[in-house]
Design brief:
Layout lengths: L32 E9 L3 E8 L4 E8 L7 H15 L9 E7 L2 E6 L4 E3 H7 L4 H20 L2 E2 L8 E4 L4 E3 L6 E2 L21 H4 L8 H17 L9 H10 L14 H10 L11 H7 L2
Antiparallel strand pairs: 1-2, 2-3, 3-5, 4-5, 6-8, 7-10, 8-9
Helix pairs in contact: 3-5, 3-8, 5-7
Length: 292
């Protein structure tokens, strides 16, 4: 869960069942951070606005809801997010400053972005085709950099792209990231991870061996589709129905609803959304080069 400072979606999700006893302010780390306010929470974690005492800077502090009662696999997943993002140094990726653990409770601090997510931003002002192409080109360059560092995101969606006040996008929330050079992440074959409406077909099928850099290409295409059409590539009345459509159906061409969208941009978008990973763009750099 990545949060921008004024993101209206930030507080929509409530704590997971049974987590109420761990949803209080993390007193165990207040020797290092002054907790200023809660920014929001998701099913797995809370994000606070905090002041890092030693450097006297304002940060976003992410703390899991499970606290010291977390399963080891959950703790590993949380620390993988911090470690994967911390190895990336790119102007269009939210920076992780540091991480640690107090009393069995992990945490990490990251850059606080003053802006909104693409998902929130689109509700007020839909993107023009030129704006959509420019945003996705910049995001693709950031993902290409992450791939060059052997990190795949695996959960690209409008809510995980924050836009600064100057219009620059920043990729956030590496909670499902995988580090290709450090062995397998704690994910089992057949396990579906991610947001259903933006999952690649291989992720929807739980085909873990096929999930890789091409899955992020699909995610970039899904973000572009959202910016052009105002919705995800696929919708469904239930998660099983949605996953079935992701794996079996072709996305509706965006020009069928918005005929003014350039045909070339629609072709780029639909190529990213190919069912077979090998039929998508070979790299995020390739996509960034076409999305002009």
């Amino acid at each position: 869960m990545a949060l921008a400072l004024d993101d209206p979606e930030a507080t929509q999700a409530g704590p997971s069942p049974g987590a109420a006893q761990t949803a209080t302010r993390p007193q165990t780390i207040e020797s290092e951070y002054e907790i200023l306010e809660e920014l929001g929470r998701g099913a797995m974690a809370i994000v606070y606005r905090a002041r890092e005492r030693r450097l006297n800077r304002i940060v976003a502090l992410k703390v899991p809801l499970g606290g010291s009662f977390m399963r080891e696999s959950e703790k590993q997943r949380f620390l993988i997010e911090a470690r994967a993002a911390a190895r990336l140094n790119h102007p269009n990726i939210v920076a992780v400053y540091g991480w640690g653990e107090h009393g069995g409770r992990p945490y990490f601090s990251m850059e606080l972005v003053s802006g909104r997510s693409l998902a929130a931003r689109a509700k007020d002002s839909p993107s023009t085709p030129h704006e959509a192409a420019s945003l996705v080109r910049t995001i693709a360059q950031a993902i290409a950099y992450a791939h060059s560092k052997d990190v795949i995101h695996r959960d690209l969606k409008p809510a995980n792209i924050l836009v600064e006040e100057n219009g620059q996008p920043k990729v956030a929330d590496f909670g499902l990231a995988k580090e290709l050079d450090v062995g397998d992440a704690p994910t089992l074959t057949g396990q579906v991870l991610g947001t259903p409406a933006y999952l690649s077909p291989e992720q929807a099928l739980g085909d873990t061996p096929k999930v890789g850099k091409a899955s992020d290409i699909y995610g970039l295409g899904a973000v572009l589709y959202f910016l052009l059409a105002g919705r995800a590539p696929f919708q469904g009345a239930s998660i099983p129905e949605l996953l079935q459509r992701v794996t079996l159906e072709e996305a509706k061409p965006v020009r069928s609803d918005r005929p003014t969208i350039p045909r070339d941009l629609e072709i780029i978008c639909l190529k990213c959304l190919e069912k077979e990973p090998a039929k998508r763009y070979a790299s995020a750099n390739d996509l960034g080069g076409y999305a002009q």
